[in-house]
């Protein structure tokens, strides 16, 4: 085990996968000479050269599509979006092409491409630069969606995503890059997509969540513990494929669920999870499932309004107590 | 040859049109056979659509056959072609069997995409035909990525990207040309200018000519008479070798005209273009009639031979329709196949209640 930042864990994953497979290349804005807008690709240009670490023009639609074409023709591209906020420009290529080509071609063309970059609200960046975008990608069949919360998950899941034969939206937490944690060493540390991780066991209530919100869930569970409530924190890690078994298991254990997410509530990830729970574990519920999402508004700039819009530990605690009727 | 009218404008050329274009008689006859097939094939598709055998959108290439024949004939089997949604003939030209294309139009399991793609989504991995794309301009960045792959792997190949004239007003087109120019990618962007994007005349919504559109990226542009298959072939033969030799991308305008509506649900004329205009083009610029007159003048083709070739084309088209008719519908179990290229034992990818 080595202690490293989330950023360095991603860097190490890229480095190892590029070493392992000459068909892997990284393209995106500022990834080469600038070392990446968030320094995830720091030093990679020196190691792999400008044919494999490629600065793209600000043409998200264009270079996302370039990656899809290269993947169809046999390469394994990693396309970095400086943030997923900018990937809306590319969503036609991600959904209409990358995610559908295997099906439309009757299985002839796999599209092994990883679209990665920061996702989720940051601090006072306003509506266009502060949003969690995962729902757009998990909605359409054909695209896998990965949201690592820790350095170890970041490394193991990025390696799995690059090796996967399907398009993957790999959504990093914009505020997690400096977060430190233990990371297993070795090239063979790969976390399979579709396996949730019980970040904290508990017996009274389940907080199910993904991505950066895992840390908020842990904070809330600390607070609840002070009040004698043992909250279980289940980190989905990938929101497609979805570890339904792990969801059902925690429901059956605690019988009470809060879904925490930093994207909007309307048809969000939580809505999908709630649907599964009521379909498949209805008899195990002792209370309605509650959701703690971002407020259903574009992110405001003013500090006080921003704080009101975002989920926080107090709201999670409140929701947990509510499902416990306390 | 009742439906292929004489072309008054292309009189016998005493200089020898084949010699002028550097095309052998054998090759010219192949091009004629190809274009006859594309014409009869599309007519068969039209007929099948009319009786409900083909559904959805169906865009015919009738009138534009020289583009498919003259451009793709130049290519090597390993070269790539990618196109938009008017691509039945191009798919066949690149090596997908007429039977597999027709079965795809019929939505049958014998289709090249197992019936899941349809008319707009023909794909052939072995033939290196990479679709068949339904969003205007959606294939242009993909072509750029194919060019990237060719260069990345140091291959001596080219990618030909077909698109309609309306595509040059899409943002992805400009982004692609810029990247192809910066990285000197071996992509030939071919704009089939049939004068209308659906029902909107190109110049009603476009300030500058197609050949101007690559000027900002310093990509050489050219324009060729896409109704004259010999000119088209000669043009692309030279151009492809330049690109293959590392000359970087090219933009080509193929000036053509569609003799049918935009799709099967669109009238041939009457709203956005006049019947007279369509009839004039059919009279003056039918690519098959143009080549026929050239080959008659060269003395390497006569009416009897032509009729024999036409009969052969009709037979292949009819056989394709028979094959499609006999090919079964996909099994219901195919519904969930091929959504994912890779599944593992973990997590649920589908929400039909299955555990995969």
Describe the 3D structure.
The complex is a heterodimer of chains A (326) and B (356). Chain A starts with a strand and ends with a helix. With 326 residues, chain A is of the alpha/beta class. Chain A has 2 domains: 2-183, Thiamin diphosphate (ThDP)-binding fold, Pyr/PP domains (Rossmann fold, 3-Layer(aba) Sandwich); 197-323, Rossmann fold, CATH 3.40.50.920. Chain A contains 12 helices and 14 strands. The longest helix of chain A has 15 residues, at 6-20. Helices cover 40% and strands 9% of the residues of chain B. In chain B, helix 2 (25-50) crosses helix 3 (65-72) and helix 6 (139-152) runs parallel beside helix 7 (171-182). Chain B is globular. Chain B starts with 16 loop residues before the first helix and ends in a 30-residue tail after the last helix. The model of chain B is unreliable at 6-13 (pLDDT under 50). The chains are: A alpha/beta (326), B alpha/beta (356). Chains A and B meet through helix 3, helix 4 and helix 5 of A and helix 6 and helix 7 of B.
């Amino acid at each position: 085990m080595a202690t490293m930042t989330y950023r360095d864990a991603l860097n190490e994953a890229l480095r190892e996968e590029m070493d392992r497979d000459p068909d892997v290349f990284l393209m995106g804005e500022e990834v080469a000479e600038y070392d990446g807008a968030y320094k995830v690709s720091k030093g990679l240009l020196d190691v792999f050269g400008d044919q494999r670490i490629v600065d793209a023009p600000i043409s998200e639609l264009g270079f996302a599509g370039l990656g899809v074409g290269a993947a169809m023709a046999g390469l394994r591209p990693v396309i970095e979006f400086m943030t997923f906020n900018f990937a809306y420009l590319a969503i036609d290529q991600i959904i209409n092409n990358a995610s559908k080509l295997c099906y439309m071609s009757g299985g002839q063309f796999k599209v092994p491409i990883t679209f990665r970059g920061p996702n989720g609200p940051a601090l006072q960046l306003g509506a266009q630069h502060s949003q969690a975008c995962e729902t757009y990608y998990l909605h359409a069949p054909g695209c896998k969606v990965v949201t690592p919360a820790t350095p170890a998950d970041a490394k193991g899941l990025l390696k799995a995503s690059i090796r996967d034969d399907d398009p993957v939206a790999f959504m990093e937490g914009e505020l997690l890059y400096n977060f430190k944690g233990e990371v297993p060493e070795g090239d063979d540390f790969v976390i399979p997509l579709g396996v949730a991780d019980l970040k904290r066991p508990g017996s009274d209530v389940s907080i199910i969540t993904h991505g950066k919100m895992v840390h908020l869930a842990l904070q809330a569970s600390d607070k609840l513990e002070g009040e004698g409530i043992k909250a279980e924190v289940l980190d989905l890690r990938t929101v497609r494929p979805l570890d339904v078994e792990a969801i059902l298991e925690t429901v059956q254990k605690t019988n009470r669920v809060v879904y925490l997410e930093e994207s909007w509530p309307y048809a969000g990830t939580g809505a999908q999870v709630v649907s599964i729970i009521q379909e498949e574990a209805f008899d195990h519920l002792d209370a309605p499932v509650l959701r703690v999402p971002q407020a259903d508004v574009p992110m405001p700039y003013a500090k006080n309004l921003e704080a009101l819009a975002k989920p926080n530990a107090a709201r999670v605690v409140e929701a947990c107590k509510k499902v416990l009727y306390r | 040859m009742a439906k292929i009218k004489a072309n008054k404008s292309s009189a016998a050329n005493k200089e020898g049109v084949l010699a002028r274009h550097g095309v052998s008689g054998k090759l010219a006859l192949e091009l004629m056979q190809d274009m006859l097939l594309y014409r009869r094939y599309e007519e068969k598709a039209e007929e099948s659509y009319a009786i409900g055998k083909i559904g959805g959108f169906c865009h015919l290439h009738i009138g534009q056959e020289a583009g498919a024949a003259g451009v793709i004939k130049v290519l090597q089997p390993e070269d790539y072609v990618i196109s938009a949604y008017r691509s039945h003939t191009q798919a066949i030209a690149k090596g997908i069997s007429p039977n597999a294309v027709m079965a795809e139009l019929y939505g049958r399991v014998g289709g090249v995409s197992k019936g899941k793609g349809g008319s707009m989504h023909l794909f052939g991995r072995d033939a290196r035909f990479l679709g068949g794309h339904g969003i205007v301009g959606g294939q242009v960045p993909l072509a750029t990525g194919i060019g990237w792959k060719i260069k990345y792997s140091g291959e001596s190949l080219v990618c030909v990207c077909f698109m309609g004239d309306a595509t040059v007003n899409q943002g992805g087109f400009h982004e692609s040309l810029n990247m192809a120019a910066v990285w000197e990618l071996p992509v030939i962007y071919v704009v089939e200018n049939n004068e209308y994007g659906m029902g909107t005349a190109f110049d009603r919504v476009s300030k500058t000519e197609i050949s101007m559109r690559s000027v900002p990226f310093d990509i050489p542009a050219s324009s060729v008479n896409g109704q004259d298959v010999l000119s088209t072939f000669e043009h692309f033969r030279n151009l492809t070798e330049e690109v293959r030799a590392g000359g970087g991308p090219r933009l080509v305008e193929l000036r053509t005209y569609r003799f049918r509506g935009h799709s099967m649900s669109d009238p041939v004329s009457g709203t956005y273009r006049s019947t007279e205009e369509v009839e004039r083009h059919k009279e003056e610029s039918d690519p098959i009639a143009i080549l026929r007159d050239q080959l008659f003048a060269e003395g390497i083709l006569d009416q009897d031979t032509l009729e024999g070739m036409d009969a052969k084309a009709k037979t292949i088209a009819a056989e394709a329709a028979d094959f499609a008719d006999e090919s079964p519908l996909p099994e219901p179990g195919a519904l969930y196949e091929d959504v994912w290229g890779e599944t593992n034992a973990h997590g649920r990818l589908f929400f039909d209640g299955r555990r995969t």
